[in-house]
């Protein structure tokens, strides 16, 4: 299996997951706007529109930060491996820059936790 075929399979899987997530979110928004409670055995709190928007904001924070982290890691890995091939002493700097790029995803996760903590 070549890399292109594997990437296409992963892309198809991600599209399916995104479609399922969007359908669940849309059905929740419709239920909230109609005043129908989501089916739960013992709801501690009904889902209001402000809560649904906060959930969406948390999801956007995580998705945006992980995509940005992936873009940054790609740039760091590409340039870092090329530089490390010429000068092996730059490997440490490549690892430091990779850690900084991963920090973007961690900040997005922390922001989502702070947003969801307000619900």
Question: pLDDT average, as an integer?
Answer: 81
Under CATH, the topology of the domain at 47-119 can be stated as F1FO ATP Synthase
According to DSSP, the number of beta strands is 0
User: What's the quaternary structure here?
Assistant: single chain
Low-confidence residue ranges: none
Structural class: mainly alpha
Radius of gyration: 20 Å
CATH class of the domain at 47-119: Mainly Alpha
Sheet-strand content, in percent, reads under 5%
Distance between the termini: 46 Å
Largest sheet: none
Order of helices and strands: HHH
Count the DSSP helices: 3
Rough outline:
elongated
Description:
It contains 3 helices and no strands. With 119 residues, the chain is mainly alpha-helical. Helix 2 packs antiparallel against helix 3. The longest helix is centred in the middle third of the chain and has 38 residues, at 49-86. The N and C termini lie far apart (46 Å).
Task: Give a short synopsis of this structure.
With 119 residues, the chain is mainly α. The protein is built from 3 helices and no strands.
Q: What are the SSEs and their pairings?
A:
Blueprint: H1 3-34, H2 49-86, H3 91-117
Supply database-style keywords.
single chain; 119 residues; mainly alpha; F1FO ATP Synthase; 82% helix
């Amino acid at each position: 299996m070549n890399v292109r075929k594997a990437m296409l399979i992963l892309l198809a899987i991600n599209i399916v997951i995104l479609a399922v997530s969007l359908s669940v979110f849309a059905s929740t928004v419709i239920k909230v706007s109609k005043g129908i409670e989501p089916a739960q055995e013992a709801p501690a709190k009904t889902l209001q529109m402000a809560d649904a928007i906060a959930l969406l904001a948390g999801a956007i924070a995580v998705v945006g930060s992980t995509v940005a982290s992936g873009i940054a890691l790609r740039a760091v890995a590409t340039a870092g491996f090329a530089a490390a091939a010429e000068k092996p002493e730059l490997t440490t700097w490549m690892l430091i820059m990779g850690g900084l790029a991963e920090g973007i995803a961690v900040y997005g996760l922390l922001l989502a936790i702070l947003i969801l903590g307000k619900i």
